[in-house]
Amino acid sequence: MPRAAFVYEEALAGHVLRNDHPMRPIRLKHTFDLLNAYGAFDGPDSRLVRPRAAAEEEVQLFHTPDYLAAVRSLSLGLSGYRPERYGFSVAGDNPVYSGMYDAALLSTGASLVAAELVLGGQVDVAYNISGGLHHAASGHASGFCIFNDPVIAIKHFLNHGKRVAYVDIDAHHGDGVQEAFFDDSRVLTISMHESGRYLFPGTGFTTETGSGNGAGYSVNVPLYPYTEDDLYLWAFREVVLPLIRGFAPDILVTQMGIDSYHTDPLTHLQVTSRGFTAAVSEFYNLGLPWLALGGGGYDLGAVPRCWTLAYGIMLGEEWPDRIPPHFAGENQLSRLRDTVETEVPAEVRDDARRMAEESVAAIKRDVFPVHGLGG
């Protein structure tokens, strides 16, 4: 049996949101090309799988029929719907662009293909780098996200009787996923992110712990800007690992945006490829059936390197650090892994340490007891 599946075709990378937009789907092609240069799809443990477009009834597991109709109409350039009502605007985060409906259906379908592979036991982990669009709400676009594929994939798992742990390590709070399952104890959502005091979407505080049956099943680890690898991983290991073990899910879903990267143009966390891969390795070591999704990431040199490293972990492969020459020359990259040390002033490190400790303490006080865990 193949160990891992990678869901991709070039159509996933072919659209352009706007010429000056920071979300550039070409990063998906760069990642695939780099993995291909390493021979990542050649061995028996790796399976390259084509996506399919999600069916409308699948998208409606979360999104309203009215919203689907609006996205379809706007995508065709028709004037029957007001873009602003559905979160779209010309110069904002979510521009209307030709073909956006089909592009959103395909990336959502890619996550469903990956979910089906995991659910059917055909692989240990399936990875859709075009997914992880965690901000979209049921009736409007948000934060570069049109359809919320993590929610739709999780609902697919729930419909098959599975309990799901969702862990989001994107620099931005996974607000759309949290909202979808805020009162549902079948889904544990954990988001590690730059604090909403400093970054979109302005949510994701430790007090957001769920409601009703879901009380204690929404977990947020807000971090201070310029948090570095060691502190990031300390918080991750203090919160994420014990909660997943306490919850004992059937399936792990991870959103692995790499806009936490230290040179990302939109965010301020100081995570390097070392910190990112250490977190991905912890996911791997949990040994759970695993659906892995992409997410944010706006440094076009960092995204393919980090996501290539992530797929290597899923395969148990240690790629050579020197990037294959034909890819390196075209993309002006030479090394796969970071050697740089981030430089953060001591007083900022102290502030970061303080916020991380406060976040972890609040979670241990308010959430751990729900799951039978000590502080």
Summarize the structure.
This protein has eleven helices and eight strands. It is of the alpha/beta class. Helix 4 runs parallel beside helix 5 and helix 8 packs parallel to helix 9.
What would you note in describing this structure?
The protein is an alpha/beta fold. The chain has helices spanning about 25-35, 55-60, 65-75, 100-120, 150-160, 175-180, 230-245, 275-285, 300-315, 325-330, 345-365; strands at about 5, 45-50, 125-130, 165-170, 185-195, 220-225, 250-255, 290-295. The protein has one domain: Histone deacetylase domain (Arginase, Chain A, 3-Layer(aba) Sandwich). Helix content is about 35%, strand content about 10%. The chain has an eight-stranded parallel sheet with strand order 2-1-3-8-7-4-5-6, sandwiched between helices. Strand 1 (about 5), helix 1 (about 25-35) and strand 2 (about 45-50) form a beta-alpha-beta unit. Helix 1 packs across helix 9 (about 300-315), helix 7 packs parallel to helix 8 (about 275-285) and helix 8 packs parallel to helix 9. The protein starts with a strand and ends in a 9-residue tail after the last helix. The model has no long low-confidence stretch (mean pLDDT about 95).
